[in-house]
Every structure is written in C-alpha cells, then in structure tokens.
Amino acid sequence: MSTQEAAAGARGAGAHAAAQALEIIREEHRTLAAVLHGLKFMVQQIRSGQAPADFELFRAMVYYIDAYPERLHHPKEEQFLFRLLRARTSATDALLDDLRREHESGDRAIRDLERKLLAFEHGTSFEVFCDAADAYVETYFNHMRKEEKQVFAVAQEWLTAADWAEVGAAFADNRDPRSGPDAAEFRALFSRIVNLAPPPIGVGPLFPRRKDG
Question: How far apart are the first and last CA of the chain?
Fold first, then answer.
C-alpha cells in the first residue's frame, strides 16, 4: 500500500469514527431537546388557557433536564470530547472555557427553576415559573447550538480516529442497558414523560388526572 493510500485510509477511518461518535452525542441532544420543547409547549398551553398545570409531568421534565446532563452527558463531554480537543489544539480553549462555565451556571439555573416550580405548585404566580422555564430552555438550546455548530466542526478537523473511538466508546455506554442504573433510569423516565405528556409531544391524556378521581 502506498503512503497516499495509507493516508487516505486513515482519513476515512477517522471520518467514520467521528460520524459514529457525533451521532451518539447528537442523539442525546435530540432527547434533551424533546423534553425542553415539551416543557416550553406545556408552559405555553397553560399560559394560553388551553390546559391546566400538570405538576407530575412538570416534575418529571425538570428532573430529567437536571439529572440527565449532570450525571451522564456533561461529564463525558468534558472528560472526553473537550479534554481531547484541548490536547490537540488551543484554538478552542476560550470556547471550551465558556461551555464549562455554562455547564456550571446551568446547574444553578435548574435549581432556581425547581424552586419556582415548587412555589407555583404551592400557590405562587405561574408567570414567575413560566418566565424561568422560558429563559432556561432558550439558554440550553443556545448552549447545544454552540456545541454542534462550533465545537463539533473544530473537533472533526483536529481529533484523530483513536480520539473519536475513545469519545464514541464513552458515550456509547449511555446506550447500553448493562452500563449501570443511571442509563436505565433515564430511559424509563423519558418513556414516562412521553406517556404523561399530551399530544403532540407525547401520548398521554389531553388533560391531567384530577387528584380526587
């Protein structure tokens, strides 16, 4: 095999490994986006008077967008994708620093959203929770957009096939039901959200069940 053929083969292997790893990360983003869209939709439905508040559904959604990124998604982004990218180039250091800070500020924002949901459930203004939910969803979408539009493009340029294999293997664990209780818990919770949420975001009833029946 010539040097050119070997180089072409290495590039092909790298591109394939990158595509596989990035598809897993994008799949996780799509799952989070579905819950975020659901949260925003339900807030809009209540605000417009088309549906009453379903606190069981809200609690499940807020828990999911809190716990899933913190326990499975963000740690692997930072420990694998971001770490390997920093090792290959300094061009994205400022961007990765921003994303790390956003991970940290996102944790504070979801704590605030949880408090406002609890207050709403106990009789305070819905608008306070509504505004916090809208702001959180918009901020998180901007965060994922920054990762997909900026970080992924630079990573495809700099990371090697071995780097991508490491990233892909780390994120693939999240798909494996044998990988531990966290992954199984979040698959079950996502199914529960789909079953609780009304169309078009789920298959649950159009209106939440009354507590007295």
Answer: 74
Judged on CB neighbours under 10 Å (0-12, 13-18, 19+), 82 is buried
With 50 as the cut, is the pLDDT of residue 207 above it?
no
Dihedral over Cα of 172, 178, 181, 185: its sign: positive
Preceding amide of 200 cis, omega within 30: yes
For residues 85 and 200, the model is more confident at 85
Give one DSSP letter per residue of 138-178, joined into a string: HHHHHHHHHIIIIIHHHHHHH--HHHHHHHHHHHHGGG-TT
Q: At what angle do helices 55-68 and 93-121 cross, to 10 degrees?
A: 160
pLDDT per position as a tens digit, 11-39: 555 689 999 999 999 998 988 888 998 99
Which of 172, 10, 162 shows the shortest CA–CA distance to 88? 162
Torsion of CA 79, 82, 86, 88, to 10 degrees: 100
Mean pLDDT to the nearest integer, 88-97:
96
